[in-house]
Amino acid sequence: MSAAPWYWAVGGMRRALGLGAFLAIAAFILGPLFTLLVWAFAGSWLFPNLLPEFSLKWWSYVLSNADVGKAIRISFISAPVATLLSALICIPAAYAFARLEFPARRALLLSFLSANAFPKIGLYVSIATLFYRLNLMDTFTGVVLIQMVNTLLFMIWIPTGTFRGINRNLEEAARDVGAGPLRTFFHITLPIALPGLIIAALFAFLAAFDEAQGTLIVGTPNHITMPVMMYTLVLSYPQPVGAVFSVLLSLPSLVFLIVAQRYLRAGYLAAGYTL
Amino acid sequence: MTPSRRAGALGLALVLPPLLLLVFLIVLPALTAVFDTLAPLEGGPPGLTLARYAQVLGARIIRADITFTILVTLASVAVVFCVSYPLALYLRFVQGRLPAVLAVLFTIPLFIPVVIASFAMITFLVNHGMLSTILYRLGVQRFPPLVYNATGIVITQVWANLPFAILILGAGLQAIDDALIDSARDVGAGPVRTFLAIILPLNAIPTMITLTLLFITILGSFTIPYLVGGNAPQMLGVTMTNYLTQYFRRTDAVTMAVIAFMIAAAVGAVYVASVSRRERVAL
């Protein structure tokens, strides 16, 4: 029997996923984004030219638009508020899920997956009919609440996994030398858990910041966030306007990637999406 | 109170606030939707009624939208799965520079809002867009339209959902012990046999989770069909949103929402069963 691992023998797969396939996948993923980026700096771009006439005129057009300014403001207030509120209520709950014994713990933890069991748009339509009755339509509170539909899952599951991964002996050692439960939490558990909590908060922020379809339903017409504004820009403005705005809208994600680089491992990514 | 009961009470108290929010944002709206659509009609006979469902499903346009939704969703799930499984296998079992680059590359759509992804895809695929320019330069002048139709929806869904599928499938493959694979080889199993007899069954639960979550996500999508899809037939997400916000026919919109819930419920049952089996192992 040869010492080579089994997959070396899968010659077909190796060849198929060789350079050609790799380039095709790279082109598929990057092509649309690259095209969009070029459009953001295009004055006009006529077929069949491979590149446009470059110009920055659409940037001043977008940045001087009052509606854009308002959307940026609403986005950068509502998403942090949604993230903070969910951190405030979810992190203690996550600690309880990880460390305390209580009835129906497992069922309650699983119940936070229930948002994934609904087709999102159906859920938003249902929430809207409830919000009509509670006069929450077209309010700031309504927008924050709809964004929290997406933040809860991240803020419960990632911190629960983080707290669970902390060695209990460290906490018990602190208790043994006389630290109370609160002191132990703030001086031992919290600092160790911080990277995981930061990742959870960043995921939650992006989920809130990028939420478009629910906010479109609940926030229209006076509480338009940046992603909701994109719908209008895509459908009724020249291409470069949407492209410029797309670049602005991607900036938080970009910052996130840079900030999170230290903590970002595939494990966390999978945790955010599988659990 | 015993210490363990005190811990139990404290645990429940800490869990209560997010749980109440969950009830308010998910359980209550869903129940309200179901009840509203079944409630007796104004001036009609008392008792629950299916009249609203009969009315919505009686409209030929909406029936066409439902069929279209299911077909596009199934097609998207199939394509995402067929692209992501080989990629997940490749990333798990092949070392080198290409897989390392690919591992970073495939996560990119995760950080791009779907609105932007849809718009980027339009600029890329639209007639006289980037792709048609390149094809034109290469001498290809005629090809079928790739956006504002079902093809565009499927392509964009693949782009947006690829990372998520690869991540879950990859996490499952990562959990498979190399020793098992080596021992299968040692007793003479070929690569195809190793895949079918060892890898596929051991990765069955992540596979189920991936398929069901993909189905529900795509079924409940709005942005991609709204921007990249055509006018009619359209996916149910767009239709129900239009009924709610444009035509002001809230009841019809909610009825469609509940129909979408029903379709997802069948698939969702599989998902919950798979995840709870896995979670039991983890606890």
Report on the architecture of this protein.
The complex is a heterodimer of chains A (275) and B (283). With 275 residues, chain A is an all-alpha fold. Chain A has two domains: 6-58, no CATH class; 59-274, MetI-like fold (Orthogonal Bundle). Chain A is built from 13 helices and two strands, in the order ααββααααααααααα. Chain A has a two-stranded antiparallel sheet. In chain A, helix 3 (57-63) packs across helix 12 and helix 7 (140-164) crosses helix 13. The longest helix of chain A is centred in the first third of the chain and has 34 residues, at 66-99. With 283 residues, chain B is an all-alpha fold. Chain B has a single domain (46-282), classed as MetI-like fold. Chain B has helices spanning 3-38, 51-58, 60-93, 97-105, 114-125, 130-137, 150-174, 178-186, 191-202, 204-219, 223-228, 236-245, 250-282. Chain B is globular and about 75 Å long. The two termini of chain B are 27 Å apart. Chains A and B meet through helix 1, helix 2, helix 4, helix 5 and helix 6 of A and helix 1, helix 3, helix 4, helix 5 and helix 6 of B.
Reading the helices and strands of chain B in chain order gives HHHHHHHHHHHHH
The H-and-E topology of chain A, N to C, reads as HHEEHHHHHHHHHHH
Give the number of helices of chain B: 13
Could you name the ranges of chain B where pLDDT drops below 50 across 5 or more consecutive residues? none
CATH architecture of the largest domain in chain A: Orthogonal Bundle
Strand content of chain B: under 5%
The level 1 CATH classification of chain B is: Mainly Alpha
Instruction: Characterize the largest beta sheet of chain A: strand count, sense, and whether it forms a barrel.
Output: 2 strands, antiparallel
SS elements, strand count of chain B: 0
